[in-house]
Amino acid sequence: MPSSSPYRPTEPPDSPVHDSDSDADLDLQELDPTTTTTTSSSSYGPGSKLLGRNPSPEQRAPRIALRNLRMGGSRRASGRTRRGYGDLGHDRDGDEDAMGLLDDGDGQPQRYSDGSGHAGDDAPLLNEHGQGSRRKRSLAGDRMQKLGASLRLPSFMSNTSANRDEDDDDDGAEQEDDDPSASRAVAVGAAQATRFPPNIVSNAKYTAFTFLPVTLYNEFSFFFNMYFLLVALSQAIPQLRIGYLSTYVAPLAFVLMITMGKEAYDDIERRRRDNEANCEEYTVLRFDEPGPQDYPASRSPRKLKSSSMRKGQKRPLNRDRLSDIREEEEQTESQGLGQPSSYVEEISKKSRDLRVGDVLKLGKGQRVPADVVILKCLTEGAGGAPAQTSEPVEEESLLVDTEQNGSTSRKGKATEHSTPTDEGNPSGETFIRTDQLDGETDWKLRLASALTQKLPVEELVRLRVNGGKPDKKVNEFIGTVELLPTRQQALNPYPDEENESDRSNSAPLSIDNTAWANTVIASQATTLALILYTGPQTRSALSTSPSRSKTGLLEFEINSLTKILCALTLGLSIVLVALEGFGNTEGNVWYVKIMRFLVLFSTIVPISLRVNLDLGKSVYSWFIQRDPGIPGAVVRTSTIPEDLGRIEYLLSDKTGTLTQNEMEMKKIHVGTVSYANDAMDEVLAYVKHGFAGAATEKTLVTPSSAYSTTAGVTATRTRREIGSRVRDVVLALALCHNVTPTTEEEDGQTVTSYQASSPDEIAIVRWTESVGLRLAHRDRKGMILESTETGKAVVQVKILDVFPFTSEGKRMGIIVQFYERAQTSPDPNHGETWFYQKGADTVMSSIVAANDWLDEETANMAREGLRTLVVGRKKLSPAQYREFAFSYQEASLAINGRDAGMQRVVSEHLERDLELLGVTGVEDKLQRDVKPSLELLRNAGIKIWMLTGDKVETARCVAVSSKLVARGQYIYTIAKLKRKDNAQDHLDFLRSKTDSCLLIDGESLALFLTHFRTEFISVAVLLPTVVACRCSPTQKAEVAKLIREYTKKRVCCIGDGGNDVSMIQAADVGVGIVGKEGRQASLAADFSIEQFCHLTKLLVWHGRNSYKRSAKLAQFVIHRGLIVAVCQTMYSIAIKFEPEGLYKDWLLVGYATVYTAAPVLSLVLDKDVDENLANLYPELYKELTSGRSLSYRTFFVWVLVSIYQGGMIQGLSQILTEVDGPRMVAVSYTVLILNELLMVGIEITTWHPVMILSIVGTFLVYAASVPFLGGYFDLDFLLSWGFVWRVFAIAAISLIPPYAGKLIRRTMKPPSYRKVQGI
C-alpha cells in the first residue's frame, strides 16, 4: 500500500440501505462492471469512474442500496477475500450468486489491507472510543433481508441462522473431543467447537475408585504381606486352623489399616493443596453481543438476521449521493463512529473453570494459570473494559464501516482525543518471571503482537489464534493470529481456503508472544491474554512426570530376607514331616501336616515387622519435623526416611537452591585501578566531580565534556585521568542496558524499582545509582540520568538502536545520541553519537582494542566466582552512523539469513576496535553456608551434580564460587555439540581424566542421552562433579532416572522451583526448598526444608539414625519371630513330629505385642554417635551407603543366634521340667520373655530413659499378668524355687555366649564409630 496515499480507506461497509421504494428495483445498468475495474484499494484516484469528480445524475440517483449491496457482498460469505472499492466485482463463488453478474474478469483484485500488518506509526488504527461511538443498526435491515431473499443470495446468509445469538458460555453445544496431536484454532472470547481438557492441577496419586485397588496391590506386591494373607486365609480351613482365627487376621488387618490410612491422609493433603491452586480467582473478560442497552436512548435498533450485517448501520440523514461518500468516510475516520463487535464485561472465575478461548486480565505478581498468548498490554488505568469517550456524535454517516476494528485504529482527529488509557501500552511490552518453569531468574520480555495490541478490547472477538499441538518444549512456539471481518467468521472452525489465502490481516506468533502456566507477571502493566492450552496440556504439566509411590531400599532388602525366611519355613516343615516318614495319622494326611507346620512357623516371617517399621518411620518423621536445627522441615513422604542415610548422588538445582538469586555488583576494574567493597566510595567521589559540569539547568554532560574537579582542589594529572575513566565507565554502565525504572506506591511512599530481563543488569543499574548516577526515565526512544545528589538531570540521550543480548552473541549493545542541552532535540549532524557494548570476556576480547590487562583481570574475577562483563564504546560520526543505518535496514529486509546478515553489518560497522572502558564483576549471592555444606557432603562420599536451566557462564561461576569445583580442578566444557562423531572424542577424554569436572549444556546432553546413553552415564558417574546447564525439566528428570537405573544407587534431588518438580519426583529421595520461586517444589517433594545447609543435617544426622535404627529394629523383630519358631521345632520333634502348637492363642499374640513390643520399638531411640561427631566425621556416612547394617552377613548372624537361643531355651526347658505340659510351657515362655528384654538391653548403644522404662515396665506387666494365665501355666509351680532357678539357669546359658561373642568382636574389630569416639 503506497505510503504517500492521501487517504487510507476503511474496510468496505456493510450495505446500508436507503429506506425508499426504489430499494427493490433492480436497475442492472447501474451494475456496469466498467465502473469497478481500476480503483485502487488504497486511494480514490481521479480516474475512478465510481467516484468521479463529475458524477452524472444517474449516479446521484437514490439507488444506493445496490451499490452498497455490491460492497457488502464482496465479503459476505465466510472467508471471502477482502477488497478495495474498485475490486468489488472479483472472485464471486458460484453461479447461483447473483453478485456474479458483477464479475468483470479483468485482472487480479488487489487485497484490501486494513493496516493490521503494520506496526509502524502510520498504521491506520481504530480509535478506542467506547460506547459513545458505537454503530447503530440500520432501520432498513428487514428490507435488506427481503432483497437478499429475492435475489437468492446464499453467500449472504452463509454464516447465520435467522436471529441467532451467540452464547459464549453455552457448554451444551455439541463439541468434538480434542485431539492432542493436532494443532488448534482458537476463537477469542468464545466457546470453542472442540472440547479441551479442564484447567485442573492434580498431584494426587489416587481417585475414590482407584484408592483401594492400587493401595492393596502395592501392599500385596510385597512378599511378606502376600505370605500373611495366605496364612490368614488358610485359617478359614478347619483342618489347618491353629488357635484363634483373629491371631492371624488381626495383625494383618492392623498393618493394612495403618499403611492405607497414611496413604489416604497424604493424598487428601495433596488434594487440599491442589484445591487451593484450582480455586484461585482470576479476572476474565466476557464478550457479550452488543444489545440495545449499549446505544444512546435516541435509537432502538432492530437486530439483523444476517451475521454479516449484524452490527447494523446508522440511518442516513439526507445524504444519498455517491459523490459525498468520500467526505462522509473522512468524517467517519475523524470521529471514530461505529458499533463495536462486542460488549465487554469483567467477571471472576476460578482457575479450574478457565477454558481455552477465555481472555484473562492479569496484573503484577499474578501467577499465569494456563498457557496463554498475550493479546494486549495496558498501562495502569487501562482495564479490560472499553474506555469511555466524551466526544458527542454529531451526525450519522451513510458509510459507517461495521467491520472497522482496533487493528485499523484511526489517524487524524481521533488520535488527538485519545488518552493514554485508550491507547494502552503502545509498545505492548510486559515482563514475566519464568523461574518456576525453567529455573532462569532473568525477567523475560514478552510482547503483544502489533496486530492485537492496537485493537480496542471490544474487537478482540474478531481474532482467531492458531497454535501447534501441546508440546513440552518451553522455549519454542509457532503460531499465527488472524483478524477476521466479523465475529462469526472468527468462530468458524473450518475457514474457507479463499480466506486462508489472504494473509494481509494475519501476524506470526512466537515464544515472545506467550506466557506459560506457572510463570508470573512481573510488570506493572495489565496484561490481556488468551488461554491456548489448559490443565494437562500446559507446558509445565507435560514436563512434569506423574507422582509415583516411593519405596525405600530397606523395604526391598527386608523383602528379599523374608523370602529366605519363607524358604526356611517351608524347608523346616518338609524336613519335620519327612523325619516322620510322611506318615498319615487319623484326620491328618502328610501334606496337611506340612501346611499346619507352615502356619505354626509363620512367626518366622513376622507380621509385626511391618508394624514396627512403620511406627519407626513415624518416629523418625517426628524427630525431623521437631528438630530446632532445621526449622520449617516437613516430611511429606514418611515411607522413605531410611533412604536419607543411603544417598550416593545428589542432584541440585542452582537458582534459589545454591544461590539466593540476588545479584550484587562486587568489583569494577578500569584498567589501572580496581575498586571493590569500601573503595566504592572513591568511585562515588569521582562520579560526583565528573557530573558537576552540568552547572546550569539546561547544560547536560556528554562523554566529550571536560572532567571537572571540585573548585579549589588541584588534582594530579593521573587522578584526573582515572576520574575521567571512572566517569566514562559509570556512564557506559548507566546507558548500556535494557532496564526500565518503574515507580510504585508503598505505604504512601513512592518506591522506584527496576524491570529487566536480567538480574545482572538490574544489579549494575542499582550500583550506578549507589555511586551517584540514577536512571530516572526510559522508554523506547530515550533515557534520562539524574544525579542522586542534586536530583537534576545530568545526561539525556536518544536511543537510536538496541542490540539485545542473545545466548549465541553473549553481548548487548546500544547506539545513543547525546543531548547537549535539556528539552531540545539533538542535532542529527552535530550531536555526539556513541556505540556502547558490554558482554562476556570470551567474545569481547576480540572486539575491543588491543590491551594487556583484560585476560588477566577477567581470569582473576572468574576465580572468585564473579560473573564478568567487559564494557567498551566507540564514537560514531554522523556519516558513519548513516552508513551503518542504511546497511542495517537493508539486512533487516532480507528474507533469507536475516539474523546473520544483520549481525554481520553490526560486526563490520560497529564491533571493531572498541575503546575498552572496564570490567565489572557481579556476584550471585550464595545461600547461607553453601560452601561448608557442599564440602561436608563431598567428604561424606556423595557425588554432587548441578543441573540448571541457566547459562553456561553463570553455571561455571556458581560452581567455582560455591566450591562445587575444587580450586585448580580442571573444568571440561562440552557445549553446542551437534555431531555424533565428535561425541566419542569427548567421552574418551573424560575416561582418561576422571578427576575433572564436566560442564555440559542441554543441547549436548540431549545428544549424549539419545545416541550414547550408556557410554555417557558410565563415564559421568565416575566424575566427582558434573554441571549441566540449559537443562529442560524433562532432561533433569531423565538424568536422575538414568543414574538410578545404571548405578542402582540412591539418588537425591533438591530444588526449589516448578522446573525441579519432575527431577524431584524421579529421584529416590526428593527434597524441596521453600524459596523465592514459590512452594511448588516443596509440595511435590518427599522432604521440605528452608535452606540448602539444612540438607547436611537431614542426611548426615537424621538419615544415619533412621537407617541404623531401622536396620537394628528389623533384625531384632526377625530374631524375635525366629526364636519362637526354633522353640516350636524343638517341641514338635519331642512330640514325635506332630504339628501341634507350643504357645497357643494369647501366649502367641501377647508375645508379639504386650510382652516385647515396647522394648523392641524403643530401639528407634538408639544412636551410635552424637550429632557433633556425625558432622565432624562425615566419612562415617560413607559406610552407610554400603548397606552393612542390614546385609546377608548380619542377617545370618542373627539367624544363628536365634537358633542357639531357641534351642537352649526349649531344649533345657524340656530336659529340666517335662516334655509336654504346663510346667514346661511356664518355664520356656518366661525365659523367652526375659531373654528378649535382656537382648534389647545388650543391643542398645546409647541409653534413653524411655528404653529403661519400657524394659522394666514390660517385665512388670508380664509379672502382673501371670496370675491370669492359669489356662496355660501351672501357677503352683511358678511360686516354687524350682521355677526360679530353672528360669535363671536357662536364661544365663542362652544370653551369656552371644553377649561374650559381641564383646570379643567389638574389641578385636571395633566399628568406625567406636574408633572415632575414642579420639
Automatic annotation (TrEMBL):
Family matches, as InterPro entries: ATPase_P-typ_cyto_dom_N, ATPase_P-typ_P_site, ATPase_P-typ_TM_dom_sf, HAD-like_sf, HAD_sf, P-type_ATPase_IV, P-type_ATPase_N, P_typ_ATPase
Comp. bias regions, Polar residues: 333-342
Record's compositionally biased regions (Acidic residues): 94-106, 165-180
Residues covered by the P-type ATPase N-terminal domain: 193-243
Residues that bind Mg(2+): 653, 655, 1056, 1060
Keywords for this protein: ATP-binding, Lipid transport, Magnesium, Membrane, Metal-binding, Nucleotide-binding, Translocase, Transmembrane, Transmembrane helix, Transport
TM region(s), chain numbering: 1146-1165, 1190-1212, 1224-1244, 1251-1273, 1279-1300
Sequence ranges of Basic and acidic residues compositional bias: 84-93
Localisation: Endosome membrane; Membrane
Domain of life from the UniProt record: Eukaryota
Biased composition annotated in UniProt, kind: Low complexity: 34-43
Catalytic residues identified in the record: 653
Positions contributing to ATP binding: 653-655, 761, 805, 838, 867, 948-950, 1030, 1036, 1059-1060
Gene Ontology molecular function terms on file: ATP binding; ATP hydrolysis activity; ATPase-coupled intramembrane lipid transporter activity; magnesium ion binding
Cofactor: Mg(2+)
Topology of this chain in the membrane: Multi-pass membrane protein
Coiled-coil ranges per UniProt: none
SUPFAM superfamilies linked to this entry: Calcium ATPase, transmembrane domain M, HAD-like, Metal cation-transporting ATPase, ATP-binding domain N
Name of the protein described by the UniProt record: Phospholipid-transporting ATPase
Organism of derivation: Neoarthrinium moseri
Lineage: Eukaryota, Fungi, Dikarya, Ascomycota, Pezizomycotina
